[in-house]
Structure formats: C-alpha cells, structure tokens
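ok so heres the complex, two chains, lmk if somethin looks off
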Amino acid sequence: MTALATAPETAAPAAGSRSRARRARRATALRSASFWLAAVVVVLVLLAAVAPGLLAPQDPLEISLGESFDAPSAAHVFGTDQSGRDVFSRVVHGAGQSLAIGLGATAIGLVGAIVLGLLGGLGGRLADASVTRVIEVLYAFPGILLALILIAVYGSSALTQMVAVGVATMPGYARMVRGQVLAVKGSLYVESARALGHSPARILTRTILPNAFRPLTVLVTLGVGQAIVWAAALGFLGMGVQPPTAEWGAMLNAGRTYIQQAWWMDFFPGITIVVFTLSLTVLGRHLQRAADSGASR
Amino acid sequence: MRPRPALSAAAALLALTVLAGCGTADPSASLPTGTKEGGDLVYATDREPTCLDPHNSGDMPQTYIARQYLDSLVSMKADGTVVPWLAQSWDVSKDGKTYDFHLKKGVEFTDGEPLDADAVVANFEQIMDPDTQSSTDLLYLSPYFEKATAVSEHTVRVTLKRPYSPLLTVLSQAFFGIESPRAMARGLEANCAAPVGTGPFKVAEWKRNQEVVLERNDDYDSAPADAKHQGPAYLEKVTWRFLKDNTARFGALQSGKAQAIFNLPPESVPAATADSRIDTDDFVHSGVPFALDFNTDSPQLSDVRVRRAIVHAADAPGIVESAYAGVFPYEGNALSSGTPDYDESYHEPFPYDPDKAAKLLDEAGWTGRDEDGYRTKDGKTLTLRLPYNSDPGETPPADLTIFQNFQAMEKRVGIKVELQPKDAASMTAIKTDPTAYDLQGRYWNSPTPGVMYIKFSKETLDIDNGQNVARDYDDELDKTLVEAAGTTDPEKQQQLYSTAQGILTSQAWHLPLYPVQTRLATRSDQVKDIWIEPSEGEPVLHDAYLIRDGA
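and the predicted structre for the whole thing:
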C-alpha cells in the first residue's frame, strides 16, 4: 500500500497516471475509512470498559432460568447463555476485564522491558551480556507457555493472568529497547549533548529516552491487541478469570460446550475479540506510518 | 512482531482436535460374519481412577474399570434380587449376623493363585486395614462387620456385630471385587497400579493420564449367573482411554475412534439421538442424589433456619433444568427415585420461595446489609465458600452452570456464595478439613437406602474421612437407620426408611439437585452387547463383541 500511495510522485507514463492516481486516491480513502472504523470500534470498547452500564443496562451476572439458550432477538441481541444471562451484556462488561488485562499486561511487560533494555543498553559490557542472555532465555519459551507456567505456579486470577501475559511479552519489548538505546547512545545528538555538558541524568531523560521510545509506542499499540488475545486464550483454557465473571476467553470456553445448540454463545465474544484486535492493529499501523513520515521529516 | 489474533485460539482448537483424533483400534478384520471372537475395543471415559484397586478410596471410576478385571461374591439384578457369582450359594443365620458363602471351585486369579476361602478372608482384611485407606468399602462395612473366617477350603463365614440386611446388595458392587491375596501383599502402591482378580480381563498397562490397557483372560470361566454368556470374553483387548473433555470425547465416538464412550455429555444428547449410528444407554443411579452439602461446623450453617433459607432461595428444579438442558430430572429428596424404599412425598420438600427464605434469614438475625447488598450479622457478611474441582472431567460444565445458577439465586436473598476452583490435591485436603468449606457438591451412588447411614450418622462422622460432609448427625435418624438395617421385613423397612427421609428433609443438611445419571453411548454399527449392571451402573464388557465387515 505504501508503494501504491507513493507511486504518483515518481515519473510515470502519462497514459497510466490517471488510473494510478485514482487507485491511489481510493487507497487513501480506504485507509482513512479503515482508520475511522477502527477508531470507532476502539472508542466503543473503551466506553464499554469504562461505563459498561451505558451500552448494556442489563446485569451480566443476572440469570433468568426460563430464558436459557434464547437465540439472538430484539430482547437479547446476542442471545442468552445456558443460565439465561444476556450475552450482549456479558460481552460489553467483559471489555473491562479484557482491556484491563491487556493494558495491564502490556504495562508490566513494558516496565520490565525498559529496565532490562536500559540496563543492557547503558550498563556496560557485562550487564549487556547478562541482559541479552536473560532475553534469549525468555525468548526460548513461546509466550503462551511462559504464561501457562506462571499460572500453574501462582494459580489463576486476573492479576496472575496480567502478570503472566506481561512477562510473556517482555522479551520482545526488551530487545527493542536495548537496540534503540544502543543506536541512540552512539548518535551525534547524544554526543553533542554530552559536549554541551549536560548531566548524564538529563541526557538519559531528555535525549536518549524520547528518541529510543518513539518506535516503542507503535509497538505497544499492536502489543495491547496481542496481550488481549493471549489473555483470552488463557481464559479459554480455564486459566484466567473464573466464571461467572464476564471475560471474553472464559465466555468462549463456556460456549464451546453448547456450540451445537447455541452458536451465539461463542460467535459474539469471538467476533468481538477479532474485530477489536484488528482495530488496534489498524490504528497501530496508522501510528507507525505517521511516526515513519515524522521521522523522515 | 505482528499480533496474530486468531492464532492462539486456533492453537487451542487444534489441541482439541488432536485429542479427539488419537484412536487406534481398527474393528475391520477378516473373520466371517456373525462371529463374536476377537477384536480391540476403544472405550473412552471421562474420569481417570486414582487407583485401580477399588478397595482403596472408592470413587466411581474405580468401580467402573474394576468390574472388567474383578469378580465379586454375588451379582445384583435390576429387580434387586441377588444371584450367585464367585459364591455359588450362601446361608444366612436366623439372627442375620452370620453369612456362610460357598465359593465356586476351580477358579484361579490371573496370577495363578487359587480362589479359596483364605483369599476371600484376605480381601475383607485388606478392606478393613487402615493402610488400604478405604473410604467406600469401609463405610459400608465397618458399622456392622466383625470378622471373616475360613470355615473350609471353599466356605467363608462373615460374622457381623449387628444384622445388616443390605449386605448382599452391598457386596455385589465391583467396589467389593475379590483380588488375589498375593497381589494385595505387594503393598498398596503396586496393587493400585495393577490389581489382580479372577475377572474376564487383566490389567496389562496403565499409562497415566492416557489409558489403561486391558487384555483378555483366556481362562475365564466364572461369569455371574446373570451374564449373557459363560466363558472368556469375546474382546481380545480393551483400551480404556481417558478423554475428559466432553467435546473431544463425543467427537471420538462420532469419528469412530472410540466404539463406546462414557459419559455421553448431556449437551451432546440431541446430536447423539439424531445420529442413527449411535446407541445410548442411560442409567439413573440410586443412592443420594447430587446435592450441595452444608457444613454444619460453619457457624452460619449450624442454624437450621439458614440452611432452610438457602434451600428455599434456590429454584432447584429450574437450576437443574437449565444446566442439564432438561435431560436430567430434578430430585429434592435425600434419596434418588430409583432407590428401594424411596418416599415420593419428599420429592420437593422446600419449594422455591424467596420471601420465605428472606423471612427465615431475618429470624436467624442476618438483618444487616453490606455495601454490595449482602446480608450481615454482627458486621460479618453471610458468605458461603463453595470449593469445586477445576478439572472439567471432575466438575463437568453443567455442574459448573448449576453452581453459577445457585450463586445467582442466593444473591437475590442476600447470601454471598463464593465459587472457588481448586486443583485435585486441594479438593482432597478440603474433604477432611471442616474449616475449608461451607458447601460442597457431592453424591453417593449406592444400591441401598442404607446409604443414608453412611452420609449422615454419628458413626461415620467419627470415622472422619470426609463422607459425612454435613458433619452432623441426629440420634433419632441413627436409631431409625440401624433398626432398618436390622430387619428383613420389607414393610417395616419401607416405613423406617421413609421416617429417615423425613428427618433428613427437616434437618436440611443439603440441597439435593438431581439423581446422578450416567450415559453410555456406543457405535451400534461397530459394537454390540455392552450392558450396564444395576448395582452401581458399571459397564460390562465381558459379553461385548465388535461387528465385522459385512455384519
């Protein structure tokens, strides 16, 4: 898409240029449409997380035994589950759980990664060697496995789920931070800051960190989506928040049992996870592009 | 690092598919149509036993598998009559305290030991030995059993402390299967791994978390009088596979990777019914239904008004209906409907009545409210902890739904129920730690109404192995049940057991929910003649055979 978008700027035969320009316009329009669509989805999910009662006034835990397994209808747009609970309310109220775990995990992963990355990037050869080894060891385990180990040891709760996913995402961020710090450390502007006689602390906070972290912000937007998927996977495996709490992964797991008679129990939480993480990805890409063009300017 | 939203979910699904797909048996072979010889059967079941010797502990999966390699002294028919098995006849003394069992001659254990009176005596001794850590067998016997002695080479005498009219019924369960004394002498651990009996199959290998391989006992000639045939089993090998995931297990049957599954999950019943290749065989257990037991050692539950309030607050029939999709019926009595001397007048003793529940709680002093709306007394919230095994093989999804429904209904009257998922080890510890639970979901399958004495008597409370979950007793109830066990007059038994059901109802030591049902599902195009015996609903594979090509 990037190639397409920049195509008109290069010299092109006059005959093809008009259609190419049209295609480029269409691509730009599509891109901005997808951006706005994604933004709307993310805003809606954020709203659901902050004030679920606004979107779904029904209590997600309130059962209604006479209404179990009702198909989607005007009264229950996403249908009801085996206890007659409103699936829409549960999806909306589950947003808070999923988002909290996703953001919390990413925050935990980031903090750990920054400590490791700075230590590796600025701490001298020995520290760098040890940090690199730690990152490599962590990398050796698939993220989800690492999370499973932590949960097996510390039991399943929202907190362990958050920490587990956070630790699992840490090595990726840590490696990036370290690389960025190393790159920025040797740059001319850091050298000039040093020549200006700035204190090491000031160089770190004002010069190194902002420049090292710019690519990280993009990565984080993408990372939140991944953390949510991982948290949902843990919930699906019964390793996360326990029922009857509304959480997307746990809902998928509960619905799996009844998939032959009540497809909506799995479909709606599933599609929500897909659409939401897709939206985060789209936003992340836009940010990335904006950051890239900003950097080249 | 691009996020791949669908990937993790796909991986989980893939794992399930792989689980479902790991079968080996190939029922097609070259024998002529109509023969009942040979073949390997894959039998997939939900729960794995902790020990293959059913004398130890005594949980349902043990009795199911033990039936395949152990014979019992007697066998029970569906009408409750007891027929010969390893004991070809027996005499009962007039006072009902001495039983002489005359054993079949020429029967050998699969390790070559002879089945004689000494071997049977050794079995009773092993059951009563604390080292065996028997729970089920011990509770059935210890209030009555005095000793077992060998009168002659093939006659065993069982002497009781007091009469025990259900004894023969009790002994028909595979829980009381007779094992080789030489094998038992190896110690509990070795015997758990591969007990030795006189049965139609022998344990070849136990791959933990996976399967038990059973091989045919070619010399078998001691089938019970109610078997469909005498002599060795038709099947050469049985792979007793553990597939605890409901969806995977049913998938294994649909794909033919397993010829029989146990249990057919309730939520798969509609799909199984619609499939002409699948036959189902339902068994409604007698005994104490699945119930939430109330721990009366907990201060809040020592008050009968609170216990009754809990029962009134729960729409138990609705809870069961929603969780078991109408496939399982509701039962509110302390006995399941199929149990002898079941009294129907206690079927729904405390109807759903939240107002009455609220009134009872007010009377009991739980009048305050905390910030979440739960009732309080002296500043303490009315909280009930309900620990359950988080393993879906042990707590099937429908039971989890029951717990959630119960939790939601109790919340409406201001009772806070905490669902606490626990691993298997913690659950075992909780059973004998009265401070660790307020409620537990439990059942007691049994062919006799005498089971009420096991669950709710002073004697079994004193044994203290966690089976008296309510941790309470009632002198009147104890007296009634001892008297019932002491009489052989059916009318008097009926009357006494009915009184007992009334006492249990008024005590409200538990919230009974549904009679335990098990469902065998078989591929009718691949296997025939697996039947369910009536004492404990044990599947019998001795008469089963695979259908050949063209059959």
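quick notes: The CA atoms of residues 195 and 228 of chain A lie 45 Å apart. thats all i got rn
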